[in-house]
Write a structure and sequence with these properties.
Elements: H1 7-21, H2 31-46, H3 54-69, H4 75-79, E1 83-89, E2 94-98, E3 101-105, H5 112-124, E4 136-140, E5 146-150, E6 160-164, H6 173-179, H7 184-195, E7 200-204, H8 210-218, E8 227-231, E9 244-248, H9 262-269, E10 276-279, H10 286-294, E11 302-306, H11 310-324, H12 329-339, E12 342-348, E13 354-366, E14 369-383, E15 389-395, H13 404-410
Parallel strand pairs: 7-11, 7-12, 8-9, 8-10, 10-11
Antiparallel strand pairs: 1-2, 1-6, 2-3, 4-5, 5-6, 12-13, 13-14, 14-15
Helix pairs in contact: 1-2, 1-3, 2-3, 9-10, 11-12
Length: 421
C-alpha cells in the first residue's frame, strides 16, 4: 500500500471544494454525492497541467474526499483487512498492528488541527464529546471498531487515538478452531455450556481477543431468547439473536451531569425481562450488580474482564465488589462462586497469535478461598521454523462437576469426554 500523499495539492483542492459547497443547504448522507462531484471537478481542474494519469487522479479524488467526509488519511488503513489496530501518537507518529506485529508507517497528518478535527467527527457521530475539560473518551466507528481518544493536557505528545478494528465478517468458532485458537473438543464443550445456560466469564490481557471470543460464544445462544447487552462502547455483534436490546453507557456532559454508568444500566436491564445479560467488560463497582444479576435468575449470562490469570481475575472481582460495598471478604467470595460457573482465560502470545489457554469450573468456596476445577490448559511445545507458537489446548482429565444446569436446560446428558454420565 502506498501511504504517500502530496499534502499541498490536497490542501489546495480541499479549500476550493469547501468554498464551492459551503453555502449549499445540504447535510448528512445527501451531501456525499454533491461533495464527491465537486471534488472530482476541482481535481480535474487543478491537475490539468500536471500530466497525471486517470488512476492517479482517482487516488487524489479519494484522498480529498476522505479528508472531508471519511476518516482522512486513516481511511486506507481502516479498509485494509490485515490491519487489526491503528495507534496514533500525535500527528506525526502512526503505528499499525498487522499479523500480530506492530510497525510504524510513513503516514502523517498535515497538522495537529487536522487530527483533532478527525477526532471530533468520530466522537460526534456517537453523541460523545472530548475536550480539555474531558480529555478522555471511548467511542466507536460505524462498523463497530473501538476508538479510544486522549487529548491534552493529559496527552503530552499530541492527541492520542487508538482504533481496535473488527473484521468485516465476524469470526466463527470454526475459524478459531482452524487457526488453532481453541481445540474442537473444547469448542464443543463451550457450546454445551452456552446452550445449558452456564454463566461464563472470559478474561485475559489487553488485545487477547476477549470481545471477539464473547461474540463467537454468543452464536451458540438460542435465537428465540431475549438478550440484553451492556457496554461502555457498543462493540458486540450478536447476529443470530432477534430479540436483542443493546445499551451503552453515557459520559457526563461539559457541566459534569448526565452520566449513565454501567451499574445503572445493569439494574435497568433487570426490569426488561432478559433471559441473558451480556456485559461487555467489567472494570469497577458494576461488578457487584453483574454478579447479583447472574445470581437472580438470569442464567447463561456472560461478561469479560482484564487479568493475568483466572486466579488474578477472581482477586480483581473481589476488589471491584469492594468498590461498590464494604462487604466481608468471605461474603464477596461466596457471591462470586455462586454467580460464576466457568471461567475462560485467553492469552496473546509473542508471535501475535491469540489462544484459549485455560478453562476452569468455579467450584465454590472452600477454606475461605474460591476453588477452581481446571478442565483445559494450553501446553506449549515451543516454536516452529516460522517462529509460530506450537502447542494445543488439552484436557486435564478432570470432569465438569456441576451438572444441574445441563439436566435442567438440556434435559439430556451430552456425549462429551468432560461431561459426567
Amino acid at each position: 500500500m502506498n501511504y504517500c500523499t502530496d499534502t499541498e495539492i490536497i490542501k489546495e483542492i480541499r479549500h476550493e471544494v469547501v468554498k464551492r459547497t459551503e453555502l449549499l443547504n445540504i447535510s448528512g448522507d445527501d451531501l456525499d454525492p454533491v461533495l464527491m462531484s465537486a471534488v472530482e471537478e476541482v481535481v480535474f481542474e487543478k491537475t490539468r497541467q500536471m500530466h497525471l494519469g486517470i488512476s492517479e487522479k482517482r487516488k487524489l479524488v479519494e484522498k480529498v474526499f476522505n479528508s472531508l467526509r471519511r476518516f482522512d488519511i486513516l481511511e486506507p488503513l481502516l479498509r485494509d483487512p490485515e490491519i487489526t489496530e491503528i495507534m496514533v501518537n500525535g500527528p506525526d507518529n502512526i503505528f499499525i498492528e498487522k499479523n500480530g506485529v506492530s510497525q510504524k508507517i510513513p503516514l502523517k497528518f498535515e497538522s495537529r488541527e487536522q487530527l483533532e478535527d478527525l477526532i471530533q467527527r468520530i466522537v460526534a457521530k456517537v453523541n460523545r464529546s472530548v475536550n480539555e475539560a474531558q480529555p478522555i473518551v471511548d467511542a466507536r466507528l460505524p462498523d463497530g471498531s473501538r476508538v479510544n481518544v486522549v487529548l491534552g493536557p493529559v496527552a503530552l505528545n499530541g492527541p492520542l487515538m487508538t482504533i481496535r478494528k473488527f473484521p468485516e465478517k465476524p469470526l466463527t468458532m470454526e475459524k478459531l478452531i482452524e487457526s488453532g485458537s481453541v481445540s474442537r473438543e473444547a469448542a464443543e464443550f463451550l457450546r454445551i455450556l452456552v446452550k445449558a445456560k452456564y454463566n461464563l466469564f472470559i478474561c485475559g490481557g489487553t488485545g487477547s481477543g476477549k470481545t471477539t471470543f464473547l461474540n463467537v460464544l454468543s452464536d451458540f445462544i438460542p435465537a428465540n431468547e431475549r438478550i440484553i447487552t451492556i457496554e461502555d462502547s457498543a462493540e458486540l455483534r450478536l447476529s443470530n439473536v432477534e430479540n436483542l436490546a443493546r445499551m451503552e453507557t453515557r459520559n457526563a456532559n461539559t457541566e459534569g451531569v448526565g452520566e449513565i454508568p454501567m451499574k445503572i444500566l445493569i439494574k435497568t436491564s433487570l426490569r426488561m425481562r432478559p433471559e441473558r445479560i451480556i456485559v461487555g467488560e467489567v472494570r469497577g463497582e458494576e461488578a457487584l450488580d453483574m454478579l447479583q444479576a447472574m445470581n437472580t435468575g438470569h442464567e447463561g449470562s456472560m461478561s469479560t474482564g482484564h487479568a493475568n490469570s483466572i486466579r488474578d481475575m477472581l482477586s480483581r472481582l473481589e476488589t471491584m465488589v469492594l468498590m461498590a460495598a464494604p462487604l466481608p471478604l468471605e461474603a464477596i467470595r461466596k457471591q462470586i462462586a455462586s454467580s460464576l460457573d466457568v471461567m475462560i482465560f485467553l492469552s496473546r502470545f509473542r508471535d501475535g497469535t491469540r489462544k484459549v489457554t485455560e478453562i476452569s469450573e468455579v467450584m465454590g468456596v472452600h477454606d475461605g478461598e474460591v476453588k477452581l476445577n481446571q478442565l483445559y490448559r494450553f501446553e506449549e511445545k515451543g516454536e516452529n521454523k516460522d517462529g509460530r507458537i506450537s502447542g494445543q489446548l488439552v484436557s486435564t482429565g478432570n470432569k465438569l462437576q456441576n451438572m444441574a444446569k445441563i439436566r435442567q436446560y438440556l434435559g439430556y446428558i451430552p456425549d462429551h469426554p468432560l461431561i459426567c454420565t
